[in-house]
């Protein structure tokens, strides 16, 4: 089968399109014939070697498609089932395997492309707004990269709670997208200091929570946006990792909380995974949540897709595809 492989860490040119053996599903695993693949920043981190992924490897964890074969002990899924997962063992391929415990059977009215666009980023936005910092009506959240794939979903889910949402974006075009997702105020951070503007918009009080996927470039000023005992939820590092932090800073700025969550810690059981996935796909089916697919690249052009995402050009979800529309 055809797949993208990484033989050495580095830039997007280290992604090679080549022939590799078809994977065999082991006990508790399912093999999926891939139709659509979700591109995520973690794929870039792995390509660069930031998480020490053993070489060589096939990137990607998120995809949607059709069950092709099941391993020993799998009874909940059968060949022909339409599914999505964010736990694939190398989704940048024509076929991939994934643990059955992390597989979701798709409703009839959800396409493979919708599913691949909503799975990982939808679960992320869900746990951030419902569990890491459970937003409540009347509170205010600051969402960085509010027009990105996670950002647009975060804004929508935050608004479902009745919270006020302030978003930061880089361009007027992205400001329109964030506003259409429900953001009450949108800050163009290249034109204005977002910390000062957030304080102005909140009459000097600050916000209860900052959802920050940017990392190095926004971290210090994100702390300045918080009210006393506020939460900085750092869930990504698109601008680079945050340097070591003196905990006394949290004291001086108002007894602040800092957390660095990851999806795996918020889908520890099948029940928790299904709760979040059922909400996401239920809202999508009911028209109460929308996912914006920004660009679709053929699998063979994965390097171009990585370049597009890494250059912070995305305005929604980026997909790789093996299927026709």
Which descriptors apply to this entry?
Rossmann fold; 9 helices; 7-stranded mixed sheet; 15 strands; 6-stranded parallel sheet; Quinone Oxidoreductase, Chain A, domain 1; globular; 2 domains; alpha/beta; 325 residues; 29% helix
Write the layout of secondary structure elements.
Layout: E1 2-6, E2 15-19, E3 29-38, H1 41-48, E4 63-70, E5 82-85, E6 95-99, E7 103-105, H2 112-132, E8 140-143, H3 149-160, E9 164-169, H4 172-181, E10 185-188, H5 194-201, E11 207-212, H6 219-224, E12 226-234, H7 248-252, E13 257-259, H8 270-285, E14 293-298, H9 302-310, E15 317-321
Parallel strand pairs: 8-9, 8-11, 9-10, 11-12, 12-13, 14-15
Antiparallel strand pairs: 1-2, 3-4, 3-6, 3-15, 4-5, 5-7
Structure, explained:
The chain has 325 residues and is of the alpha/beta class. The chain has two domains: 2-119 and 267-321, Quinone Oxidoreductase, Chain A, domain 1 (Alpha-Beta Complex); 137-260, Rossmann fold (3-Layer(aba) Sandwich). It is built from nine helices and 15 strands. The chain has helices spanning 41-48, 112-132, 149-160, 172-181, 194-201, 219-224, 248-252, 270-285, 302-310, and strands at residues 2-6, 15-19, 29-38, 63-70, 82-85, 95-99, 103-105, 140-143, 164-169, 185-188, 207-212, 226-234, 257-259, 293-298, 317-321. Strands 3, 4, 5, 6, 7, 14 and 15 form a seven-stranded mixed β-sheet that branches. Strands 10-9-8-11-12-13 form a six-stranded parallel β-sheet, sandwiched between helices. Strand 8, helix 3 and strand 9 (164-169) form a beta-alpha-beta unit.
């Amino acid at each position: 089968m055809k797949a993208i492989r990484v033989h050495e860490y580095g830039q997007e040119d280290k992604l090679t399109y080549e022939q590799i053996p078809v994977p065999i599903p082991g006990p508790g695993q399912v093999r999926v014939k891939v139709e659509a693949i979700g591109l995520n920043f973690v794929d870039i981190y792995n390509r660069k070697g930031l998480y020490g992924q053993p070489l060589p490897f096939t990137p990607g964890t998120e995809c949607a498609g059709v069950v092709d074969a099941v391993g020993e002990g799998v009874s909940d899924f059968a060949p022909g089932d339409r599914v999505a997962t964010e736990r694939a063992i190398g989704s940048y391929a024509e076929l991939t395997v994934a643990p059955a415990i992390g597989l979701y059977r798709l409703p009839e009215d959800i396409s493979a492309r919708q599913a691949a666009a909503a799975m990982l980023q939808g679960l992320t936005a869900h746990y951030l707004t419902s569990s890491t910092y459970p937003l409540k009506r009347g509170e205010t959240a600051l969402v960085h990269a509010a027009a990105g794939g996670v950002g647009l979903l975060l804004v929508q889910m935050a608004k479902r709670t009745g919270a006020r949402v302030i978003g930061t974006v880089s361009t007027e075009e992205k400001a329109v997208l964030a506003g259409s997702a429900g953001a009450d105020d949108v800050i163009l951070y290249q034109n204005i200091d977002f910390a000062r503007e957030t304080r102005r918009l909140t009459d000097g009080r600050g916000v209860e929570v900052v959802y920050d996927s940017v990392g190095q470039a926004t971290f210090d000023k994100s702390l300045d946006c918080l009210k006393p005992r506020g939460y900085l939820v750092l869930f990504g590092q698109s601008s680079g990792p945050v340097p070591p932090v003196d905990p006394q800073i949290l004291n001086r700025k108002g007894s602040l909380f800092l957390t660095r969550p990851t999806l795996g810690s918020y889908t520890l059981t099948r029940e928790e995974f299904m709760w979040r996935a059922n909400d996401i796909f239920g809202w999508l089916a009911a028209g109460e949540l929308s996912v914006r697919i920004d660009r679709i690249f053929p699998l063979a052009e994965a390097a171009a897709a990585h370049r597009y995402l890494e250059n912070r050009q995305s305005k929604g979800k980026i997909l790789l595809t093996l299927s026709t529309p």
